[in-house]
Design a protein that fits this description.
single chain, alpha+beta, Uridine Diphospho-n-acetylenolpyruvylglucosamine Reductase, domain 3, Alpha-Beta Plaits, four-stranded antiparallel β-sheet, 21% strand, binds (2R)-2-hydroxypentanedioic acid, binds zinc ion, FAD-bd_PCMH-like_sf, FAD-bd_PCMH
Length: 426
């Protein structure tokens, strides 16, 4: 993104949990701060060390790049234990060899790591079907801020003894412990999947179509919204236009079911409102997915100033109005920039990307977007987390008591404030 820079006095690349524990023990004794980095694909600056003003404590970058082991798949129990640095693609490939899959998928799958997606509770394109990363975590191994190793590692589906520590570390953004390993739930891949890109007149046509597909008995595997501006930008960077007819909005819909999925899907498309054109591709539909997955990179290559990237969500019934308000805001006299909106429409999640924003207007524009989202009862962070990008605005998403509770947990687990300083709490 070209937005975040920082300083590390050293980089350590441990291979084992014991090595991580040894490093953290030393850091705790010497008051050294630790920024953990997995694939470094996060979009809120959470894996970039802080800058280094005079007199600040030394910081190390702890990279999980060498912690890439993937255990043997437990086919009956549908789970796998992995080290934190194993990539999402590696885990999914290993699961695939056993006839299973990892329920989390995202465009950065080749680089994003297990530790990173758990630490950020990543959402991704399969969330509508299998839930977020937190729901895939059966067990966790982590090094606490004092160097002790915490291991809750049970494949039991039912195990109700006290606090949900794996659930707490999921989404903790490196602020509570260093995640070194994860025991992940695996899921069964869809049968008979079909992928369609549908050119649509309006956002509300997309949500109605998703409902109609469900009513027709189809299972929604993914539902992604794109705009003409986004598709055109990807096309300018070498991507294919998915549908011949240009339209204000496009819905990428992946559905599955038992028998005759394509016929059922075509029936839904024929009767749905606002459909201007559509193309259907059986199987994994990689060619159709390409245009969606190339959005982030095409955006980064097209903006004159660092992109203002805001990952927000609104109730599904408010999506159409929220998108209209955001586009109007970007074109208003007060804030001139180029908006590219896309995202996981089935989850009410819009990725607001604002290009060519004058640097002195980045914060003002961010606040204006958050005001629109608040007006529709939405969230300032749908799936990317808080990181450094949004730490000044957590009060817009959580009450004072809620924030104080988070702070109390942080202080209890990391009393010296060594783990990922500047992230989440600012
Ligand atoms: C995606 O859905 C990612 O592709 C990135 O969450 C979103 O670049 C973005 O705004
Ligand atoms: Zn996303």
């Amino acid at each position: 993104m070209g937005r975040y820079t920082g300083h590390a006095d050293a980089v350590v690349r441990p291979r084992t949990t014991d090595e991580v524990a040894a490093v953290v023990t030393l850091c705790a004794a010497e008051g050294v701060r630790i920024c953990v980095q997995g694939g470094n694909t996060g979009l809120v600056g959470g894996s970039v060390p802080p800058s280094h003003p005079d007199g600040s404590r030394p910081t190390i970058l702890l990279s999980t790049a060498r912690m890439t082991d993937v255990d043997e798949i437990d086919i009956v129990g549908q789970s796998v234990g992995v080290q934190a640095g194993a990539s999402v693609a590696t885990i999914d490939t290993a699961a695939g060899r056993a006839g299973l899959m990892f329920g989390v998928d995202l465009a950065s799958r080749e680089s994003a790591t297990a530790g990173g997606v758990v630490a950020t509770n990543a959402g991704g394109v399969r969330m509508i079907r299998h839930g977020n990363t937190r729901s895939q975590v059966l067990g966790i191994e982590a090094v606490l801020a004092d160097g002790r190793i915490l291991r809750r590692w049970s494949p039991l589906v039912k195990d109700n003894v006290g606090y949900d520590i794996p659930g707490l570390l999921a989404g903790s953004e490196g602020t509570l412990a260093v995640i070194t390993g994860v025991l992940l739930r695996l899921v069964r891949p869809a049968t008979g999947a079909e992928v369609a890109v549908i050119a649509l007149r309006a956002v509300d046509d997309a949500t109605a179509l998703i409902g109609a597909a469900r009513d027709a008995g189809l299972t929604i595997e993914a539902a992604e919204l794109m705009t003409d501006a986004g598709v055109t930008l990807v096309h300018e960077h070498g991507g294919r236009r998915p549908v011949a007819t240009a339209a204000p909005f496009y819905l990428l819909l992946e559905v599955s079911g038992t028998g005759g999925v394509q016929d059922v899907l075509l029936g839904v498309l024929e009767t749905a409102d606002g459909v201007l054109d559509a193309v259907v591709e059986p199987g994994p539909g990689r060619a159709l997915w390409e245009v969606r997955e190339r959005h982030t990179e095409s955006i980064s290559r097209s903006t004159a100033t660092p992109v203002v990237k805001l990952d927000v969500s609104v109730p599904i019934h408010a999506l159409g109005d929220a998108v209209a308000d955001l586009e109007a805001l970007a074109g208003s006299r007060d804030h001139r920039c180029r908006p590219i909106l896309f995202g996981h429409v089935g989850d009410g999640n819009i990725h607001v990307n604002l290009l060519d924003v004058p640097p002195d207007d980045a914060d003002g524009l961010t606040e204006a977007v958050f005001a629109v989202i608040a007006g529709h009862g939405g969230s300032i962070s749908a799936e990317h987390g808080i990181g450094r990008a949004k730490s000044a605005w957590t009060h817009l998403g959580r009450s004072a008591v809620d924030l104080a509770t988070m702070r109390a947990i942080k202080d209890a687990l990391d009393p010296q404030g060594l783990l990922n300083p500047g992230v989440l709490f600012g």
